[in-house]
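Let us practice reading a record.
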Amino acid sequence: MNRVAGVLTLALITPLFAACGYVAQDTSGRAYLAKYDLASASAVRPGPAGRTLRPDIRRAANVEPILRFPARIGLARIENGRLTGIPPKEADAWLAMGKRLGRAYGTFVPISPFIAAAVAMDTAGKTTRPDLSRVEQVLRRIRLGAARQHVDAVLVYEVAYSGENRITPLSVADLSIIGLFLAPSRWIRGKGLATALLMDVRNGYPYGTASATSREGTLTTNAGSSSVEDRIARLAGTQAVVNLVPQVEKLARTVRAQAALRRPGPAKPSQRVN
């Protein structure tokens, strides 16, 4: 069984291979473009440093961090490539994080799949394009729903998990009628991955990414091992989100500190903490 839905996993999340970690960004688009414009203006001979940036690259780079605290921050959950509701255990973990951060950070609001779907229907034909990839489609829907809910930034997080069913030395008991139900002949393992992107709803600025993993395991009989495998895999996915929350909390504290120090001037380097 494999239920890994890698929509944002490969496309958006930088610290994919880290067990736990986050990356915060506070760089300036104006400073980034000015650096290349200066190189282009001062170049004596045509060369890589003196070439004009392509218009689409310039548009993508021309964005500034504008988030201020306290803020209204959305929580958007993705599983199997779709925007979903937030399960109770995950919601409890996010609620506890919000309490630890306090009012200075603002409020955290779940992005409703129903509101996002309604906005997508309202804008059908205006913002829906068949040439968009699955990643682009789900992000567009989340951003529209977040805008309708009037949030400043949205934390998009994805849950992925898989299960593995292995035999134990007692697997010979599977050949007997009684042993099939009594002997722990199967070792069930589950792996979970949770990844997140904090993005400004208004201009799409990426304030940072975070990731966390989880492993779960149990012994069981051959009878009913498939349902146990599914349960353990889902448990690993939920635990990965619980492990993700402290990384997002660190990211939020870093982003707020950067926002407090932000002044017009040269870009600051990105910061990575594991």
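A brief commentary: Residues 187 and 219 are 5 Å apart (CA to CA).
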